[in-house]
Design brief:
6 helices; 4 strands; elongated
Amino acid sequence: MENWLYASTEILVKVFLSVLAIFSIIICIIRVSGLRTFAKMSSIDFASTIAIGSVLAAVVMNPGQSILKGAIALAGIVIFQTTFSFIVRKSNFFQWLLTNEPMLLMKDGVILYNNLKKCNVGEDDLIAKLREANVIHFDEVLAVVLEATGDISVLHNDEGKELMGKMLQGVNKDEEI
């Protein structure tokens, strides 16, 4: 009998063996597909990581779940992610169609309010990210970019250096600066 405090020894052993098996499968898949499997370079990578975690949890926590079924699901997710990344990397059209473009939110200490609005980012959220990056004055900020992954990158310094143009490669600047 199982309840919220107790599980039978048989179920606990099955969970433990499932963990060993499914993690071994994940390690094999990662070795074959490469480290990109868990990189968060795009929204698809992020979604793939969440899906892999969900499959892992389902196999481990559901004693009736097949490890083979979980392995096939994991392989399918990774194959889709790898194929998607390859297609986007090789085709400008598919890159434009299927990926998000980073958006410039702040440039040279000036907040780009129209870009904030387009990205549904509030000024308070932006300022919180500036604090996380230890920015103490807007003049230190060279650029803030909402990345394609949803992360916010803060490029700043207090040494008077200028921003290298290549650092904004591929970033949608949209609002005139």
